[in-house]
Q: What sequence folds into this?
């Protein structure tokens, strides 16, 4: 790995495994742990570092000096990329969905502060950008530019995600993770032993297509995983009073912060499934905290 990345990784905190203490879990005889990737770094937290690590290494290997990617006005991915670019001395360009707001969101303000150039693209153009999956795919890309698809959804991301799995030193039955593009889920599926169940929770509505997308990036077929589509709460970034109340209560009980787009919905789902006896008594479950707490600023 490039020296700049090794140096960057040195300042990271360990992602600890935290046991959740809650009488409800004891009542259903379920042991629930959280893999605290949110603690990894104040900015490049959660699955962002896991996904970006080997992509950035590759970008440096091919001699790129500019990283270009896409995301929304609260994108965790662009936020982390802008920061990583600043630290690594790489230029960054963010193609942001929708019209430029009169006042930039706190996320966009951070990105600008870290030197990212922002280009606002219409929703139609944005959808078209989703077609470009490989690092050299973006039409008009210059030889010194490196393209990252939405959410850093590249095959190279899977290797970094797999490292979170190898850090877990206790045996467990099921590992749970929220899904946007499904890249983090795919990296986990690739890394867990075959007898471990992997459960993804879609943050998007109508995300049935994700199963096929995840299957298409796996190096071999396996059937120890599935994506639950029932806990999107009306769609991406949609929330309701029940979800908010759950998050508040969970944070109070555990002091673990959740955001309502990904990890909040996943934890709500895990608790709901526990109450519905989805998991066998005696099971040990690990839920991955994928970070993204900066996105919470969109809800205050
Ligand atoms: C905090 C957080 N959790 C989970 C996800 C979903 O990850 P993936 O797109 O790899 O499914 C994202 C989006 O990248 C995210 O920002």
A:
């Amino acid at each position: 790995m490039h020296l700049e990345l090794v140096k960057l990784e040195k300042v990271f905190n360990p992602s600890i495994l935290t046991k959740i203490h809650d009488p409800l879990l004891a009542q259903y005889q379920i042991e629930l742990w959280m893999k605290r990737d949110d603690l990894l770094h104040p900015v490049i937290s959660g699955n962002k570092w896991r996904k970006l690590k080997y992509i950035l290494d590759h970008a440096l290997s091919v001699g790129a000096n500019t990283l270009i990617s896409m995301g929304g006005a609260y994108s965790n991915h662009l936020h982390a990329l802008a920061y990583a670019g600043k630290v690594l001395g790489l230029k960054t360009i963010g193609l942001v969905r929708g019209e430029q707001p009169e006042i930039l969101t706190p996320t966009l303000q951070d990105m600008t502060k870290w030197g990212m150039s922002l280009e606002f693209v219409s929703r139609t153009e944005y959808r078209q950008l989703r077609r470009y999956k490989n690092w050299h795919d973006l039409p008009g890309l210059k030889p010194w530019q490196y393209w990252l698809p939405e959410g850093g959804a590249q095959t190279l991301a899977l290797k970094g995600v797999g490292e979170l799995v190898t850090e877990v030193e206790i045996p467990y039955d099921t590992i749970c993770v929220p899904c946007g593009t499904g890249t983090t889920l795919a990296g986990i599926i690739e890394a867990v032993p075959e007898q471990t169940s992997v459960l993804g929770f879609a943050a998007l509505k109508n995300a049935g297509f994700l199963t096929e997308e995840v299957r298409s990036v796996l190096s071999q077929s396996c059937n120890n995983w599935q994506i639950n589509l029932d806990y999107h709460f009306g769609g991406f970034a949609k929330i309701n009073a029940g979800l908010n109340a759950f998050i508040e209560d969970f944070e109070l009980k555990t002091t673990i912060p959740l955001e309502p787009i990904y990890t909040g919905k996943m934890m709500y789902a895990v608790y709901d499934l526990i109450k519905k006896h989805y998991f066998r008594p005696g099971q040990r479950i690990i839920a991955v905290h994928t970070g993204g707490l900066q996105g919470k600023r969109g809800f205050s």
